[in-house]
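Lab notebook page, bench 4
Experiment: in silico fold of construct C2
Operator: M.H.
Input chain length: 82 residues
Purpose: comparison with the prior construct
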Amino acid sequence: MKAILILAGPYSSCHSTQNIWLDSCSKQNIEFETHDLTEAVGKELAEKLNIKSFPALVVNDKVIAVGHPDEQAAEKIIQTLK
């Protein structure tokens, strides 16, 4: 299983969100990658899934979360994937 975080761009405000999701995925041994809309991969995925809100966490081609979660919320979401 792989979780993909799509960010609006390479903004410093998204860095903490990326760290929260990365930490939560690491604890559950879930592969994690990050893309943003300035990259072809990020833009393609956002268009394919019709994503309008960012950051967006995608697993199995489904958006499972949007926005900036706190650590507890992110861990709870990731635990439901197992």
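Observations: DSSP finds three helices and four strands in the chain. The domain at 2-79 is CATH 3.40.30.10 (Glutaredoxin).
Next step: discuss at group meeting.
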